[in-house]
Amino acid sequence: MKKIIILLLKGSNLSSIENPRQGFEEANRYLAQKSQGPLFSVQLAAPESKIQLNNGLYEVQAQLLVNEIQRADLIIIPALQEPLQQHLEENKTIIPWLQQQYNKGAEIASLCMGAFLLAGTGLLDNKKCVTHWKASNLFCQLFPRVHLINDKILTDENGVYTSSGAYSASNLILYLIEKYAGREVAIYCSKFFQIDIQRSSQSPFIIFSGMKDHNDVTIKEAQHFIEQNFEDRLPVDTLCERFAIGRRTFERRFKKATTNTVVEYIQKVKIEAAKKILEQGYKTISETMYHVGYNDVKAFRDVFKKITGMTPVDYKLKYEKILV
């Protein structure tokens, strides 16, 4: 039987505690219907007997204390809410325990912004990781040795797992159920909870806002200029002339400050504007393309799909406002 520990931590998101618990328990119920014994032992554990969540709105009782656990097969770190750095500080005492359990053979999975605590253990250094897209800039600042990828929904790095934002955690739970119990059980659970088991990307959900938490004033001005003039072509040389910086220096400083190249940043700003237009449903694809400064249908489609994982047509059909 797989011993699964779901941690109760200060600043945890309640749904990311309850959802994995329900997922593994439903897998057990399905196995019972097949006249098989339960495969998962699921327990809620915490550094103390009770944890208050959402500023005291909820109080969750731990089934055991973490210092009572000798071994576990899988430890789940739930999503942490903002302010993230405060909750990281509040939960830092559990980091040595996580490191110890991993060294004993436990696998560890983080859900959504629980990746911040997992990264704090050092177990993600030089490994791929995902988290909520909204927190990606802060994550890169705090954990530069971790390879954050924004377009995937989960990662598996030899027993260290991460999931992307919010309810995408359900896809990681299904992945783990399939790994431990097989495809049939995972498909049943996906149908029971009505989760798309094949979803693999969070790209369609990302809202690009640009990374402005840096001290390079000139680059901030360049970012603002790009965002205010996304309808124009915006050649990089024109930006360099406007801000009186050589191209190589401008590109180096821009990449350092924003983690994007200048071209990537321009593309993301334009596509974010295009997404908002398509969501409203009052412009055609061609009108949208021209509005954000593209005049080549193939180029617009290719960049749009690269950034969102969807074609403009598919995105429009998925999100456009239905006009009466």
Automatic annotation (TrEMBL):
A Pfam match: DJ-1_PfpI
GO molecular function: DNA-binding transcription factor activity; sequence-specific DNA binding
Record key words, sorted: Transcription, Transcription regulation
Keyword Ribonucleoprotein in annotation: no
Domain of life of the native organism: Bacteria
Residue intervals passing through the bilayer: none
PANTHER family named among the record's database cross-references: ARAC-FAMILY TRANSCRIPTIONAL REGULATOR, TRANSCRIPTIONAL REGULATORY PROTEIN
Protein name: AraC family transcriptional regulator
Organism: Niabella soli DSM 19437
